[in-house]
Amino acid sequence: MTTSSKKTKLIIALGLVYIIWGSTYLGMKIGTETVPPFLLSAMRFILSGTIMLSVGFWQEKEMPTRKQWLNASLIGILLIGIGNSSVALSVKYMPSGLVALFIAALPAWFIALDWAFFSKERPKPLTLWGLVLGFAGLFYIFDPFHLFSAGSGAARSYPLWPIPVLTVGSIAWALGSLLSPRLDTPKQFTSSGIQMLAGMVSCIILSCLLERHDWHTVETMTIRAWSAIAYLVIFGSLVGYTAYSWLVNNAPAHLTATYAYVNPVVAIFLGWLIVDEVLTWQSVIGSVIVIGGVVLMTVGKVKKKH
């Protein structure tokens, strides 16, 4: 592949992940209005995984080895079974824009896990300041101890228990992304299909354990809910996930991670525009702080590599 061709693919892949994945938070929010979150994820990825794996076998014409199947399945469990499912669960109970904003701190987990288990390189001071600033912004927004909203008369309309769920999901997503280029996996489409189906199996297990009493809601799904699933399958999984999979294997990790501070802007705007999610000044100010912190983390990583 020529340098010009790779640069073009890089720009297209980043653009797709920036915009499409920012909109999937709203898609999951709408879908979970009717269907329980783990079942929604299972429905989404059984469709997209089957399509993706079929395309992979047809186009790439290569049968993965047992080791490649296992490696791709491990990545799928981390990225989809844990990472994506934590988001689907959280958007059911929290504003989709705030969930996206929490995920914006994902580069922090990339940096921490890369330092601890992979590169062993200590983050630069600028990166550390970005980490502090990013988490300070999240603390300001969610205000668990009512330090900033006390006396304002504004009561939080959502619970905070999804925060540790999102934290576990973020760590799993970062770990899966860091492992992906380091493990022997099949070619891109085949690998993505295996990952989706492995994640789907994880979602089914979680749904069986936690949501069995809500499965009847599938019978009452509206066109709105089916449309959300169709959007998640086509754009969120087949297009967006393929673009992300290409990025983690072909682009620098610090560049791939930049999607984390574009997605919240898209998600917050769409949540406000389409499902009337409340946008407070506290959320706006905190968003600026978080995104500023993520920019510092990314800039710190870039400077470190020069």
UniProtKB/TrEMBL annotation:
Protein origin, superkingdom: Bacteria
Topology in the membrane? Multi-pass membrane protein
Its primary localisation, in coarse terms, equals membrane
Q: Which residues cross the membrane?
A: 38-58, 70-91, 97-118, 125-142, 162-181, 193-213, 225-244, 256-275, 281-300
Q: Does the keyword Transferase apply?
A: no
Q: Gene3D superfamilies from the entry? A: 1.10.3730.20
Q: Which UniProt keywords apply?
A: Membrane, Transmembrane, Transmembrane helix
Q: What is this protein called?
A: Permease of the drug/metabolite transporter (DMT) superfamily
